[in-house]
Amino acid sequence: MAAPRRLFYRSETRFLLLGLPGVMFVVFFLLFPIVSVIVFSFWRTESYEIYADWNLDNYRTVLFEGTYLTFLWRSIVTAVVVTAACLVYAWPVAYFIAKYGGRYRLLLVLALAAPFFTGAVLRLSALQAIMGPIGVINMALGMFGLPAVEFLMFNKFASGIGIAYLYLPFMVTAIYLSLLNFNFQLLNVAKVNGARPWRAFLTVTWPLNWIGTAIGITLVFIPCLAESLTPTFLGGPSGKLYGSVLGLQFDQTGTWALGSAMGVLLFAVCCVVIAVMWWTIDLRRTGFTGAGR
Amino acid sequence: MTNVAVGLQGLTKRFGRTVAVDRVTLEIDQGEFFSLLGPSGSGKTTLLRIIAGLEDPDEGRIVIDGKDVTGLPPYARKVGMVFQDFLLFPHMTVGENILFPLRMQGAPRAERDERLGWIVKLLHIDGLEERFPHQLSGGQQQRVALARGLISRPALLLLDEPLANLDRELRKEMEVEVRRYQRELGIPFVYVTHNQEEALTMSDRIAVMRVGRFEQVAPKFEVYSDPATAFVASFVGHANRMRGRVAALEGGRATIDWDGARFAVPAPGGAGVGAAVDVFVKCERLTVLPSGSAAPAGANRLDGVLRDVIFKGQIADYIVARPSGVEIVVSEAASLPRAKAGDTVLITWAPDTGHGFPAEGA
Q: What are the strands, taking DSSP E only, across chain A?
């Protein structure tokens, strides 16, 4: 038999070397912050100092003092509406690119991601410059002597458009990547076998691309829940979301413990969302065939 | 009702400047097994897709069961189709795959169950209903695809090279079975293939296609033994092509000058004395004898040197080189067991076999 292999070539060594970066990432950037946030949420802050007095006051405040839950609820509703809008908008876009994009596919997907070449703040300012009181739309209306449209200014609707604009590319990309692996021939099979186009979509295209779609939904829904930047720019007083209030605890009022409790609650909601999405995925029903035949 | 299951009238399909299907007219009878045979790019798959409704023809009409379906979408045509790569729905079980057409038609549950039971028995796939396609072998997947195409008893079943992805043994077996299902159900099959053996094994009639047109449409035996064009003669079966000149014409027979020798064949239509002709003689119509043997009276004779014997089991291919270096292949039962490379031999065949056509591009 072969001589004992050197340390580096042993399979256990390689296993560890390969696994290490991932483990370190999870420990330092996921577990560590989450654990500290959970710990902080049971402590107390006073005059910009944090004290390790274990108590439940922060949760009492978040759960029973009306405003916080109202903001959370508003965030959830916003996330649902924005995700649904992104879903409806992204499907045809992704479908078109995957089916008819040909050799320009990659270019088209990159074009969708082009706004990412600048920062989020810049992009939101641009939106403000389009929808705001002295923005392009209202200036144009004014030139024709028409009254300015108010529903585009500093309210929930404006901030919804802003958030959808920020996260739409994630949804399109997730669905597009799924459609890349979809065999469009199956639609011909469905049609020859008596399926009208809409029926073919529902019985073949949708279930076979559900994993990609679910990833898209999750990628949009979760950051929507925590969104704080967009409402600041576009939301006005009525458009304030949970994320904005959460941010305040850290950068303005210095109530980190309360902020941490809000964060833990948000984290819990996200876990529920992910659990629900996971529950909808039946691998056998998505055409997933495992590693091999 | 007439006996015509499918009528195609002047179908033409262009893709840009190429004409994929060129004024095709055809009638297929009820209960007929009809094959479209041709090399890749001959337009046979396009023609099939036009019949299915997956492509729109630029000109012409399609009539299925007496009804003009030319402008109708595929789901309104009552045809079944079996595809080359099976194309089962990966997220559905075998049972759901097979039942898909009935589900789309909204057939009642009792009927679905009854039909499913019937078709899985017929195709020997009972017991697999709960499996998913990726858990099946290639042959099983092909049967499921067939079952899906047949379960709704379509007016017509279209098959696009359905056996091309199966290994040789299985393909042979399935050829016989597919033919049997077609007989039992009496549904007309239109079968696209580039494999002449498949077409010859299964079909009633064969259309040989080339660059969008039919070269010959005839019962399979006729296509094999009496090719209408040089293309059919070279594409169906294995034939030696000999390009020569007509030296004489007499009583329906032509004497051909070829490679320094002379032989007789039935007179090629449209070729006068001196014209260049391509003569095709099927390999198995030739006989190879030891040099100096007595050939039957009146038979054509060619000399040569045996260059190689390719033993294939039932038959052997004898490759005979003429003095000029041109080779002729003779397929025969291995009747010259001791023949070896380098022996001088005599090739003979009857003058009424073989087909001549005016040489193309000469």
A: 44-46, 49-51
